[in-house]
Amino acid sequence: MIVSILLFLMTLLSGCTTIQKEYVPVEHIAIPAHITADCLLPYIPEQMTWGESLMLNISLLSVIEQCNSDKKAIREIEQQRQVMK
Known about the structure:
The protein is an all-alpha fold. Helix content is about 60%, strand content about 0%.
């Protein structure tokens, strides 16, 4: 009785060795065009007042913030690509 159970278990173990790996092609994730677009600078006049200078600084900081968020999105896409590999 024990021998028949052991033979049965041995056949189950040997059945697991015939599994073949199948590689599935993964779709390439394209980086959206709005993320890779150039950051547009605001118009910088030749002469300006102190108040206009402050407004220019605010608009320049918002451009930098937008570019940094685009770069962060690109890094996240690249991390997703690494996980899929």
